[in-house]
Amino acid sequence: MTATPLTDVASRLLANVDLDHGDLADSVMRMPVSSYLDAERYQAEIDEIFLKVPLVTALSVDVRNPGDHHALEIAGRPIITVRGDDGVARTFINACRHRGAPVAACGHGHERRLSCPYHAWVFDNNGQLVGLPQREQFGDVDVTGLIELPTAERAGLIFTVLTPGVPIDLDEWLGDMASALEMLELDKLYRHEVTTELQSGNWKSTADGYLDGYHIGYLHRDNIGLKAINNRNTWDLYGPHVRLGFANKPIVTMRDVPVEEWDLTEAMSLVHYIFPNVSISGQPNRLTMFSRLLPTGVDSSLVVQYHYSREPIESAEQRQAMETRRKLYAAVTGDEDFSTVMQINRAFPAMATDDFLFGRNESGNQNLHTWTAKLAGMPL
Description:
alpha+beta, 5-stranded antiparallel beta sheet
């Protein structure tokens, strides 16, 4: 079974507007506040989820050509995804096999060779050791290259398991989410060179915001909430992953227009949340924001935002337009979403014996916590 087309999502959103409510879960879910605070639980989430399931480490267009690479750190693991001369994207531990120094700085780059700054050991873009200064004085070398991680590419995204040797099966992991992602045509994007890094609180409370359609008309009432008909969302749950639809005000003008003629970009907004930590906001033929949520401790996380266009960003005017958009979303999420998350986190100790409630209109949040508990081997 494949994901339903976007016209189906739009039709369901209009039906929800007419019904005066969004898609509804079977019941309200209770979640102990202590589950956000528990250090043992947090470590289980890192060990059993972030280090064992396929994570998005790059978009295919981030490493479009041989030698293109993207280096970052996830859950304490420094990694680098590189496009090889053979066209294959691979991910390695970003650490020289000699003494562990990084072979590339964090961020996007292009190098024909990856060179360690400490002793100048050199690796090619397939991860193989190809240079070692004064090798005759060093002695025996029993390594052939960087430590490679299980990696696969699908729907314009590169997925990696951060533990060497763990099998990667994207068909099983993504399920019908794969076809939902293919509809986005992520392989046709062009990246804006400037990224945004924003501090937030606990990774699950930060993820709660990405999966919550309920708050848009309230927390964001003066900006992105102005275009929305609040709390009329559709939810498509693909295992741990979610496709979330938002009704926009112009959708009501389309009741008498054949759905095939609808301007979907005006009628609705879309968020695809790839568990556990990636949000993709956008539609085909539209600007796209890719957000990566990085846990940094029980009560902290870092969110990195990347912006993409549907055409090469070459002129000063195009770069300025993208930069204006980047700053807008940095302000909206940083000043509103993440500042609220950190205020919520400060209330955790006072509420430690209480439960949070996730309503029938918050299916995405319920799904997040159900799967997090299941995969971490923890009670809900």
